[in-house]
Amino acid sequence: MLILLVAALIAPGQDRAEPPLDCREAMTTLEINDCAAKDVATQEARMATYLAASVEVLRTEAEGPEQAETVIAELQASQKAWQAYADSACGTVYTRWQSGSIRNLMALSCRERLTRQRTHTLWTDYLLYLDDTPPDLPEPLPRSSPEEDTP
What we know:
Blueprint: H1 2-10, H2 29-61, H3 65-96, H4 103-127
Helix pairs in contact: 1-2, 2-3, 2-4, 3-4
């Protein structure tokens, strides 16, 4: 919810007929916030990829449709609980910094960090195997890098 609010506040600047922002050169608060929002969107898309792959693994490994339905419902419930936690935790960060222009960046940074952690948890818990079978997706890297922009 917080991310949608922040994105809505940032989005009007994207309607201008300006060249795309190079986030390595971001200088103003709006540019920095825009880049942070893009980072969050990238991490959320990556997390969705890892979540979908996790669902497929659970469906494939289940001992029948009933077990698959149960375990997938549990994963979806845990994802919903994680979402509520992330909203609350990063909302608290936003509130802590509410008197400064850094509040959006701090909340977005919180969301990016928690999303990275959740993605890594999905990878560890559902996409790794106990034998030498390679993981279904590569291990999510701890920080942004050009190589990380693809799942």
